[in-house]
């Protein structure tokens, strides 16, 4: 069975009374997941909207629970880590992860960062060994594919673009993705939203079409068990 984990992070809904408020990133992600699910109708699909239903932010007590050996954890500490355990389990069983995100203030939404903070956890998604020298952290998962879907008001955040130094969303997602066990990454981006001109229309249409094609392509690719 192939498992798809779909994470949306916009605080906007995909559909609103005023269509001008519809989430662009969520609607592009819908194109991907619908194309994928048409092929994999019986496989597992896990969905979380962390924009509408954000995970709790970690705090001092959470960190204390994480660094307490499991056999010594109190009942309160175990309860505190229940959400983290659940989110990590969802990542663990996923073969493909789709993350859709708008760019907020040139980076990721706080709600999406909260999701990552709940998941990137010692002895659960990475281990730590000083014998590795300057790179003691090692991810524990591998073999997964990540589809990054983004929307932005401006443009030119790609490598070599006019705003390359301002774009912290995709680089951050790429850095954190290794702790999700990601080996392969695809990117789909819609830009120019604030300009509202023909460039935005073309960028959005191209992103929608790219999402549909990639969803079908990856679905056909994983017709047999995805993980080796």
TrEMBL record:
<feature type="domain" description="Flavodoxin-like fold">
    <location>
        <begin position="19"/>
        <end position="213"/>
    </location>
</feature>
<dbReference type="InterPro" id="IPR050104">
    <property type="entry name" value="FMN-dep_NADH:Q_OxRdtase_AzoR1"/>
</dbReference>
<dbReference type="GO" id="GO:0009055">
    <property type="term" value="F:electron transfer activity"/>
</dbReference>
<comment type="subunit">
    <text>Homodimer.</text>
</comment>
<dbReference type="InterPro" id="IPR003680">
    <property type="entry name" value="Flavodoxin_fold"/>
</dbReference>
<feature type="binding site">
    <location>
        <begin position="23"/>
        <end position="25"/>
    </location>
    <ligand>
        <name>FMN</name>
    </ligand>
</feature>
<dbReference type="GO" id="GO:0010181">
    <property type="term" value="F:FMN binding"/>
</dbReference>
<comment type="similarity">
    <text>Belongs to the azoreductase type 1 family.</text>
</comment>
<keyword id="KW-0285">Flavoprotein</keyword>
<keyword id="KW-0520">NAD</keyword>
<dbReference type="GO" id="GO:0016655">
    <property type="term" value="F:oxidoreductase activity, acting on NAD(P)H, quinone or similar compound as acceptor"/>
</dbReference>
<comment type="function">
    <text>Quinone reductase that provides resistance to thiol-specific stress caused by electrophilic quinones.</text>
</comment>
<dbReference type="GO" id="GO:0016652">
    <property type="term" value="F:oxidoreductase activity, acting on NAD(P)H as acceptor"/>
</dbReference>
<keyword id="KW-0560">Oxidoreductase</keyword>
<protein>
    <recommendedName>
        <fullName>FMN dependent NADH:quinone oxidoreductase</fullName>
        <ecNumber>1.6.5.-</ecNumber>
        <ecNumber>1.7.1.17</ecNumber>
    </recommendedName>
</protein>
<feature type="binding site">
    <location>
        <position position="10"/>
    </location>
    <ligand>
        <name>FMN</name>
    </ligand>
</feature>
<dbReference type="Pfam" id="PF02525">
    <property type="entry name" value="Flavodoxin_2"/>
</dbReference>
<dbReference type="InterPro" id="IPR023048">
    <property type="entry name" value="NADH:quinone_OxRdtase_FMN_depd"/>
</dbReference>
<keyword id="KW-0288">FMN</keyword>
<dbReference type="InterPro" id="IPR029039">
    <property type="entry name" value="Flavoprotein-like_sf"/>
</dbReference>
<comment type="function">
    <text>Also exhibits azoreductase activity. Catalyzes the reductive cleavage of the azo bond in aromatic azo compounds to the corresponding amines.</text>
</comment>
